[in-house]
# Entry
Amino acid sequence: MIWGLVASSRFRWWSTLVVLAFASFGAGERERGEIQPAANAASAASLPRLERLSAGTVFHTDRMPTGWSQLVLKSIPVLTSGDLGTVSEAAHVTAKRIRLSILADVGRDANAGVYSLRRIGVGLAAPVVGGESEGGDVIVESTNVGQLSGEWSTKERIILAAGSRELGRATLAGATPTFAIVRTPTTCVVGTEHQTVEVMYAVLVDPDSGRVQLFACKLRDGDGPMLVRELAAPAVVDSPLDVKAKSFAGIPVSWSFAMIDVPAGVERTLPLEPGRLATKDAANLAEARKIESAFRTLADSTSRQPAQVQTSQR
# Structure
């Protein structure tokens, strides 16, 4: 299956495994460091930035490493439909092993004033195994898997490297001090086909409490209501994938893997025209504030129980 080196198309399967269903991020071959915002994004010291998490960073759902306050999303790919009979058991195991993870750095200066979103960190994580570990996940790279995640075969490292390249394609499409939009081109099921679709993740921070809320949707133009899904952060979700095999003389020779849908959550109607999220104008600070306002209206429309908030220590 995807494990051979017969054709480069065999690497395409990973572009949806990291989908997070968040799946792909934008900076070519760069594997670490800060991910660049959209070209015309507003530049201000108070705005959050998008970063790659360093290899070896260990985190738990309820316990973050120094400098990070909260897990926002951990997406676990699961092959669930399509040409499942053409893939090996190893494909299922490896898919679940490599998880797209998003962390947030939320805080306030000197424990006073309003909360702000300082950074969003993204990376590929694997479960911590063996030793005296207390579980959790650790960020891995093909050239630096460390000791905490166990042994990696050459094929698994190749898959991890392909995923890391895909992770470089995300952009910080818009941001304010308490809001960020991450956009990523993602292979999705469209009708009966696998097509590239822009998927958006919106991270919203309550300036008074520091609470983080997460929304996801597929971007589109046109008329009709803009539907988004609200996920309870920290969101630890399965990401169902569809498998499509291409055959030659009856033998599968290449595979495509596509996200069936954005992660499950509460579907809500965003009070905003669909085209406003799809436009590059979101990178403008004034436009980003308008989009934030729409998400905040949505978030405030449902009463919620107070949540305990963690903030990063500086």
